[in-house]
Amino acid sequence: MDVLFYLFSAILIGCAAAVVCVRNTLYSVLFLIMAFFNAGALFLLMGAEFIALILVIVYVGAIAVLFLFAVMMLNASQTQNQELVRYHLGSIVAACVFAGELIAVALQWKQGARTVDRTSFPMPKYLSNTEALGELLYTHYFYVFQISGLILLVAMIGVIVLTLSTQNQRLLPKQNLKNQLNRTKKDTLVLKHVEFRQGLKQGNP
C-alpha cells in the first residue's frame, strides 16, 4: 500500500507540474485528466471510494472533457507568449499565496498542532462510506449543504443575467412565439412533384 501511495503521489505531482509548465494547452488538459485519475486512486487507497468515483465522474467525465472540447474547438493549443505577459503578476501572486497555504498546512501537520477528532460524529460500523457521507451531509451539515446549493444557484442566475444583458440582446436572434405557435402546415410545408431522374425544377408544382 505504501508503494502504491508514493507511486500515485509522484505521478500526481508530476502531472500537476506539467499542467502549468506545458506550453501546449491541449497537453495541459490531458495532464490534468491524468492528475484527476491519480487523485482518485489515492482516495481509493484511503478507503473513500465514493469521493474517488465522484472525482472521476464529475471532474474527468464533465469538467475536464469540457475543457478539452473548448480547447479543440477554439484551436487554442498554441498560445502566444505576448498574450500571457499581462497575467504574469497575478499568476505569481496567486502562486505565492497557494505556496504559503501549503507550507502552513505542512508545518501544522508536522508539529501536530491540530489533530482531527474522528469521534465528533461517530457512525455505525454497518454503514458504508457513501451512507456515512450522506448521513453527515443531510444531518449535521444540512444547512451548510443547502447554503452551498444556493450559492451555485445564484452563480447560475448571474451567468444567465449577464448573457441576456441589454448589450447582448442585439446579438441574439429574435423569436416571435405567437407566430411560431400559430403557423399551419400550409405555411411551412410545400409538396413538389419530382419526375424520376429529372430533379426538382424551379416552379414545379
TrEMBL record:
It catalyses: a quinone + NADH + 5 H(+)(in) = a quinol + NAD(+) + 4 H(+)(out). GO terms for molecular function: NADH dehydrogenase (ubiquinone) activity; oxidoreductase activity; quinone binding. One of its GO terms (cellular component) is plasma membrane. The chain crosses the membrane at residues 6-22, 29-46, 52-75, 87-109, 141-164. The keyword Transmembrane applies. It is an enzyme of class 7 (translocase). Keywords: Cell membrane, Membrane, NAD, Oxidoreductase, Quinone, Transmembrane, Transmembrane helix. Its EC number is 7.1.1.-. InterPro entries: NADH_UbQ/plastoQ_OxRdtase_su6 (IPR001457), Nuo/plastoQ_OxRdtase_6_NuoJ (IPR042106). Its main location: membrane. It is found in: Cell membrane. It is a multi-pass membrane protein. It holds the Pfam family Oxidored_q3. NDH-1 shuttles electrons from NADH, via FMN and iron-sulfur (Fe-S) centers, to quinones in the respiratory chain. Couples the redox reaction to proton translocation (for every two electrons transferred, four hydrogen ions are translocated across the cytoplasmic membrane), and thus conserves the redox energy in a proton gradient. Belongs to the complex I subunit 6 family. This is NADH-quinone oxidoreductase subunit J. The lineage of its organism: Bacteria, Pseudomonadati, Pseudomonadota, Alphaproteobacteria, Holosporales.
